[in-house]
Amino acid sequence: MVRLPCPKHLIIYPNPSSGLVSVMYSSRNANSIIISDNMGKTIFTQKLRSPQNEILLDISNYSSGLYRVSILNKSGEILMSKKLVKY
Question: Which of 11, 28, 62, 77 could tie 24 with a disulfide, CB 3.0–4.6 Å?
Fold first, then answer.
């Protein structure tokens, strides 16, 4: 298990990617993850499990381009967000 250095930290690896992506986050308030395309349309959403701090995503079926990965709290507010490049 990787320890993340600050209370609200988000790591996406590898980035850029064409297949599997590991998303590691550190927030006790994390409730869900969403991926949005460059137009802001949500293309993926998933609820997160409480003790979990890492999720593996398969982006191989996504079109090449720029995406935004966001971690949300129960109220739907964005806690942290980062760009993801699919090639």
Answer: 11
